[in-house]
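Reopening this one. Same input as before:
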Amino acid sequence: MGETITLKTKANAKINLTLDILGQRPDGYHLLSSVMQEISLFDELSLTLSASEKNKISIEGNFDCPPEKNLCYKAAEAFFLEFGISGAALHISVEKRIPSGAGLGGGSSDGAAVIRALAGYYGIDDKERLKKLCLSLGADVPFFLEGGTQHMEGIGERLSPVSRCFDSFVVLAKPFPSALSGDMYRLYDSLGYRSFAATENFLAENHQGGSPFDYVSNALEKAAVSFCGDILSIKTAFLDSGAKAACMSGSGTAVYGLFQEREAVRAALEKVKENSAFCGIYEFI
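Same output, byte for byte:
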C-alpha cells in the first residue's frame, strides 16, 4: 500500500419488529427469534488507510468509551488478524448520530460497517467467514452485513431475508435513561417473564400479504419498563397518536411507533420530544 486512501461509509440503525426469547444455552446466551429492520438513522464513518511497518489502528469520534473498547477498533483488529493483513495503518473517524444504550444497534452497525469497508477494499468476498467474524463481535453485528429486513435466529448466527409486504414511517424516541443489554437480559431472567411466538405469527401474516403489525412485540419490554417507566409512557403516546404499532427496540430504552399516515407523524413527535433524550422521524431501508 503506497498511498493514503480514505473510505467513507454509513452505519444504519435497526429496530426489532419482534423479539422472542426461546430459551437459554448452557453458556448463558439467550436463544432469540427476531424480525430486524434497518432504518434511515445512521452514523458516518471515515476510514483512512496508509502503509506502516506494522499494523496500527487509531480512532476518534463523539463516543464515550476508551478507543480500544470501541467496536470499530475491535472490528478492524479482528479483521486484520483473521485475514492475515499486515503493514496497514488505519485511522477511523466516527460521527455518531445513533444514541447509545437505546437498543438500536449503533455500536454493532459501526463494527459491521468497518468490516464491510475493509472487505471491499481488500477484495474479500467470503460471506460465511465474514459473518463468523461479525458474530465474534456481537449478536447484532452479522445482521448489519446485509441489513434490510431479516429474520434472525439463535444468538445471531442464522439470518434469512424477509420480503416485506408492509412499509411505515418510524417515529423514534429514547428516554433519558439508557440500558445495557446484559442488564436487561438478567432482569428479564430474574422476573420470570416468558416470551411467546410473535415472530412466527408476524412472518406468517407477512407471507400471506396481510398486515403483521398486530404481532409487533418485544419480550424484554416488560423487564425494561420496570427499570424505566418512560418506555411505557412513550409507547402509549405513540398509540394514542394513531400508530399501527409501538414497541421498544432491542434491549431498550428507545421506543418506536409505526405510522402509515404522514400527518400523524409530526403530532406523535410533538407528544414525546420534551421527555426524550433523542427523537426523530425515519423510514425503513
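So the earlier flakiness isn't reproducible anymore. For the record, The longest strand covers residues 30-51.
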